[in-house]
Amino acid sequence: MMLSAKSGVPALRVQRRSAAAGARPVRPAVGRCQKLVVRAEQSSSSTETTSFDSEKVLKDLQEKWEAVDNKGAVAAYAAGAVVALWLSSTIVNAINAVPLLPKLMELVGLGYSAWFTYRYLLFKSSREELMKDIGELSKKISGSE
């Protein structure tokens, strides 16, 4: 991979070269080795730079933490979330160790995804129903209902 020495947001240029050092054009052929060369260069049209202000984020988090009334409950929920994440990771790794189960789980996930797409995403009326259900659920969770 070759990168240019220019700074900024790179734009990629892709060139294909054959394994032979000749200047002939590369034509796909069975049994020929090809090398892919990628070079990143700065585009003259992109002058924007993105920056992350960590002090602002930390100050905002501190203000929100100070506004919390029951800090113990928030800490308990955070600890419970970490434990739940660790437990789910352990369960997934245990299932992944069983020889046939990972492929079976992939098949179940594919089937559920296909059913969900057919049930909720394919037709306009079912998409509207899904959006209504999501709105009702978010109102229940936020307590505004």
Automatic annotation (TrEMBL):
One Pfam family per UniProt: CAAD
UniProt KW Membrane keyword: yes
InterPro entries: CAAD_dom, CURT1
Transmembrane segments: 74-98, 104-122
Keywords associated with the record: Membrane, Transmembrane, Transmembrane helix
Cyanobacterial aminoacyl-tRNA synthetase CAAD domain residues: 60-143
GO cellular component: membrane; thylakoid
Membrane topology type: Multi-pass membrane protein
Keyword Oxidoreductase: no
Cellular compartment(s): Membrane
This protein's name: Cyanobacterial aminoacyl-tRNA synthetase CAAD domain-containing protein
Organism: Chlamydomonas schloesseri
